[in-house]
Amino acid sequence: xxxxxxxxxxxxxxxxxxxxxxxxxxxxxxxxxxxxxxxxxxxxxxxxxxxxxxxxxxxxxxxxxxxxxxxxxxxxxxxxxxxxxxxxxxxxxxxxxxxxxxxxxxxxxxxxxxxxxxxxxxxxxxxxxxxxxxxxxxxxxxxxxxxxxxxxxxxxxxxxxxxxxxxxxxxxxxxxxxxxxxxxxxxxxxxxxxxxxxx
Length: 199
What we know:
Elements: E1 13-18, E2 21-29, E3 35-39, E4 51-52, H1 55-62, H2 70-73, E5 86-91, E6 94-99, E7 104-105, H3 108-115, H4 123-126, E8 160-162, E9 168-170, E10 175-177
Antiparallel strand pairs: 1-2, 2-3, 3-4, 5-6, 6-7, 8-9, 9-10
């Protein structure tokens, strides 16, 4: 969740994800009235327990010395005190996104923009579902090769053929489709059948 208030209390935990790795730091009391940002990254011994003067310098250390806007790099974990929260509610006007302070918005983007003081916001990226973890990206489905030779006993005169991945392919509409296990389709879902075949 984005950081709303830059006056973070001692003990506040910040989290970040960079190049597939999770990082954390905690706001600690430094000399005088200054705060420090102490890394808590046991998986990264070169950074673990190291203190920084700002969230930007902590983020820069993670990024190998590259310039970093720490207020954008770090975020507050969902559920931590001081974190912006919203809930989707159904009202007489339709679906609304209600902030903890009671304000309602028509879209997640407008709710996120209100949290960010009016700055433009992609609400679908700004918000996350409480307790939900990021899902791994699915590998794109590779185009399946057609099984050569016999038409797998399908009486469609070559109109419907079986693919190596188990799906079926209609040569009329040039689309693959699924059929229940053990069932040889007599046509495709779009209605092409052996009678439509020019053979």
